[in-house]
Amino acid sequence: MSEAGRADAAGFALRGRQDEADRGGASLTDHSVDVVIQDVKAYRFDAPVVPPIRSSFGWVTERSCLLVSIEDTDGQVGWGEIWTGMPAFGAGHRYDLLTHIAAPLLIGQRVRRIDHVSQQLHAAMLPIERLAGEPGPVSQVIAGIDCALWDLAATRSGLPLYRLLGGTGATMATYASGIRPDLDPAAMDTLRQAGFRAFKFKAGFDDAATLGHLRRQGRDLAAGEHMMIDANCGWDVAAAERAFDALAGCPLEWIEEPVGPEVADDAWHRLAARTRHPLAAGENLLSRSRFEAAFDWLGVIQPDLGKWGGVSGVVPLARAALAHGLRYCPHSFGTYVGAAHAAHVLAAVGGDGRLELDVNVNPLRTLSAPDFPDVIDGRLTLTDRPGIGIAVDIAGLSSLR
């Protein structure tokens, strides 16, 4: 960490001591961690999207990723992914928040409770949230840091993360995500050959054509296959109702983000009552209270570990969702670092949720961890390697520069 970075963080500080915080209540798990942070590194990469991906919010022509590594004084390293999303150049701002503000606060800190570190970072960076109006980027940076600390803790323990978190089963259902609604049958067969048995199609744009394509995809499903759609907040309430009616006979496992999180709660209730298909959302919610409010109208909860909460926030949220009778299906649409964290948390909390795996061409994903587990007959099985169980390949990603 540069002296300039330390200077930028001079006005911020972590408040409270970890040992004092420990007396405040029960830990997320029974595992105790005691590490001193020696270094925090950030790795930002960009790549063109060929072919471009069409969504309700436009065409995605470039993708980015921001990975964070945290090294302790024993030389052990943990990895996390900070959501960057669209526009891709937003990764630069999150990189600056990480390197100039968050990282200097962490270096030299003794960590005993990871969830308390995240709370302290939120308190320290609250002026940025307030004055710059940036709860999203701040939450994303802290979420990625939290994930990296949990990977570090599991690596030090010699356990895969899901087992450190109390999970026992290493196998989970998956689905192929980000599929264009008009994908031809031959390309669908390629996804089947890659092991997938469930498929999520893009929606929320060009309804005159797209809804017909979706009905055709539903008719073409083989026995034992499943489909979902994701409108990416592309409809208003009236358009969503029309789409629901048009897709009433389609075998949908869920309808994701038909409208945006800013839409009033009563409108979400109205939409949930309009369709027999469960509604899904969560990647764009930024507080535990908003998630808990959404329990009333959602059937599927989808937080992204790199956007909000990290492991410390999402594990208790997912368990609460399951206790409420909902499904937990983590959102993941970045590199294999984020996907690995999502897989381990899904394995830890259990339930019948599915792991989201982006199937669009993305060298940032494929180069990030070539040893990411394969999908076999619709399911993925985690290894017994410590931590998140993958070898992050920074050299491979650097080849894109």
From TrEMBL:
Record-linked Pfam families: MR_MLE_C, MR_MLE_N
Tagged with keyword Lyase: yes
GO molecular function, one term: lyase activity
Keyword Lyase tagged: yes
Superkingdom classification of source: Bacteria
SMART domains recorded: MR_MLE
Keywords: Lyase
InterPro entries noted in UniProt: DgoD-like (IPR034593), Enolase-like_C_sf (IPR036849), Enolase-like_N (IPR029017), Enolase_C-like (IPR029065), Mandelate_racemase_C (IPR013342), Mandelate_racemase_N_dom (IPR013341)
Start and end residues of each Mandelate racemase/muconate lactonizing enzyme C-terminal domain: 181-278
Protein name: L-alanine-DL-glutamate epimerase-like enolase superfamily enzyme
Organism in which the protein naturally occurs: Pigmentiphaga litoralis
Taxonomic lineage: Bacteria, Pseudomonadati, Pseudomonadota, Betaproteobacteria, Burkholderiales
